[in-house]
Amino acid sequence: MKLQKFIFLIFILSISFMITNCTREVTIDMKIQKQAFGTTPGGQEVLLYTLTNSNNMQVQITNYGGIITSILVPDKNGKLSDVVLGYDNLDSYIKVTPYFGCIVGRYGNRIAKGQFTLNGKTYSLATNNGRNHLHGGIVGFDKVVWTAKEITEKEVLGLELSYLSKDGEEGYPGSLSATVTYTLTNQNEIKIDYLATTDQPTVVNLTNHSYFNLKDAGLTPILDHQLMLDADAITPVDSTLIPTGEFMPVAGTPFDFKNLTPIGERINADDQQIKYGLGYDHNFVLNGKMGELRLIGKVYEPASGRVLEVLTTEPGVQFYSGNFLDGSITGKNGAVYHRRHGFCLETQHYPDSPNQPNFPSTVLNPGEKYQATTIYKFSVKK
Ligand code: GLA
């Protein structure tokens, strides 16, 4: 009898072991799929890649502009839904976009009057933002087709995008070879590795311009989202959003996000910097050591329970509260993107660094490697 019981117990144990293992195999089902996304006016075929991790988190990326078109993550009840703004189709991205989800380059953010001097030579770039240069010019890295390579290794799912920006493109010196690798991990992280080399001295500052809305992907304002940024100062700007070169302590100002604070709490404050930005559109000087991957920001959205953490090796982050969204764009699922329906956390070197001797340098010389990493990590707080 005892022996029978023992055999029965062993039987039950082996069954449960098999079930556990089997479930593990079923859940570890990371995959990458690709589909056609359309053709550019110049006839280039564009693809849309869907990366799915073992938690069913899903990220879609197109090789047009390296745009992240959707990010499906669970809320506090485990319900998956999209948390970024964007379009359903390629034509809309080509027609008009406020840089939805894209890779920004060769120089993310502004360069004053579209000019900078490097090794005694002055370079002129397009002035596509009032009198300044913004986000790489007329045809920046957000508007080109990147060469895509799928990466499927054990526990790693990624998309490597490469682009060769020719000498003189958009006025920048040197041929710049850029590689941006998006990786989706089973920890619900999107890791972005930026790499670039050049054959002549140039300037480079790459970032990603995803507009997040952790509640509903842009149907409603982001003002209830709570934000933490590990920054003691911002680089204050003039009325054209060019840094004055100073560092302004955030203590006692609407820019103090050292503890989680609703974005909307001080967004209309009677403050000169807020007025210049029409809200938040500023570079935060991040604490910690540039070059070291560290947690620099956190966003918590109370209704969904979703949390976004941002880690980066960069010295700065542009916190943009979607002030220029004006309801003129209808995006995915018919969502109308009104003012402040999305926010960006663009990890970066400071704006206008090529003209600011006191800012960390954005010069890249032949033989050097431009390298940066940013992680957007999603979770929930119940
Ligand atoms: C950046 C800028 C903003 C705005 C957006 C795009 O984040 O800082 O001023 O130009 O891009 O609309």
CATH top-level class: Mainly Beta
Which fold name is given in CATH as the topology? Beta-galactosidase, Chain A, domain 5
- Shape by Cα distribution: globular
Q: How many individual domains? A: 1
Ends apart, CA distance between termini: 49 Å
Give the names of the bound compounds.
alpha-D-galactopyranose
Q: Strand tally, please?
A: 27
**What characterizes the major β-sheet?**
9 strands, antiparallel
Indicate the CATH architecture.
Distorted Sandwich
Q: State mean pLDDT (0 to 100 scale).
A: 94
Radius of gyration: 22 Å
Taken in chain order, the helices and strands follow as HEEEEEHEEEEEEEEEEEEEEEHEEEEEEE
Give the low-confidence spans: 16-28
